[in-house]
Amino acid sequence: GATEPDPLERVAEEPQSTPGGLMFSAQRRGKIEPVVGARIPLSEARRAHEMIERADVQGKVVLMVADGAE
């Protein structure tokens, strides 16, 4: 059977087609960078979710596979 195309591939091919596509395109060109508000070890994923729910962090919350990994 036919497989569904990856939505990110469509956005990459047609970056002007959606507001998200505009952001994706600008990021690929280095015009914008995501703001990382916190890096949390994967073992503390529950705490990361709680921080997001309470709006305790501004920016993205990145779950780290290994503590201190970049």
Description:
- This protein is of the alpha+beta class and 70 residues long.
- Helix content is 37%, strand content 16%.
- The protein has a two-stranded parallel sheet.
- The radius of gyration is 16 Å and the shape is extended.
- The termini are far apart.
- The mean pLDDT is 79.
Amino- and carboxy-terminal Cα gap: 40 Å
Total beta strands: 2
pLDDT < 50 stretches? none
Q: Please describe the biggest sheet, giving its number of strands, its sense, and whether it closes into a barrel.
A: 2 strands, parallel
Give the DSSP E fraction (strand runs of 2 or more residues). 15-25%
Strand adjacency order, main sheet: 1-2
Relative helix content: 25-40%
Write the layout of secondary structure elements.
Layout: H1 7-13, H2 19-28, E1 36-41, H3 45-53, E2 60-64
Quick synopsis:
This protein has helices at about 5-15, 20-30, 45-55, and strands spanning about 35-40, 60-65.
